[in-house]
Specification:
Layout (H helix, E strand, L loop, with lengths): L8 E3 L17 E10 L1 E5 L4 E5 L5 E9 L4 H12 L12 E9 L4 E8 L16 H4 L4 H8 L13
Antiparallel strand pairs: 1-5, 2-5, 2-6, 3-4, 6-7
């Protein structure tokens, strides 16, 4: 696996607290705070969201999560696997891990990794109103959890919902 700068992760979907894949963080979280990414649009892929790059005024709400340095590589590997991202062959991945600027709860901008999808996968998918996955799926947590209990990665699932 390629080494890369240890930035926090901006997460906006199933990796959020209370969501089906939050467990992947384990005990590795050193710091977590609400954050917003300006320049993304969130879509409902069925059981998980996909964010794609959009106009600068569009916002996606999530969490900025900083892993403990000693746990960083293991966390990064688990998240890459979940998202179907291959850092050695990013061109073959449906999600790309990109360095972006997000705005934390303190109002300051900070660099973070985010998993961005591709527009061809969301062409017929509904947009998540308000850019908040957690609010959007609040009523369907049990159904989401049941689906996630049966899989480990979203790799290759984007056109199969």
């Amino acid at each position: 696996m390629k080494q890369h700068k240890q930035l926090p992760f901006f997460v906006y979907g199933t990796l959020l607290p209370g969501q089906p894949n939050f467990f992947l963080w384990g005990e590795a979280i050193a710091h977590m705070e609400p954050a917003t990414f300006f320049g993304g649009r969130l879509y409902d892929m069925g059981f998980y969201p996909m964010m794609i790059a959009a106009e600068p005024e569009t916002a996606v709400h999530g969490q900025l999560i900083t892993p403990h340095p000693a746990e960083y590589q293991a966390v990064c590997q688990r998240l890459d696997e979940l998202e179907g991202y291959d850092p050695d062959h990013p061109e073959t991945s449906d999600y790309q891990r990109k360095r972006v600027e997000v705005v934390g709860s303190n109002g300051r901008s900070q660099s973070a990794w985010v998993y961005l999808g591709q527009s061809q996968f969301v062409a017929d998918k509904p947009e998540v109103p308000g850019g908040s996955w957690a609010a959007y799926v609040a009523e369907s947590q049990a159904e989401l959890q049941a689906w996630w209990d049966a899989i480990r990665s979203v790799a290759g699932r984007h056109n199969k919902q």
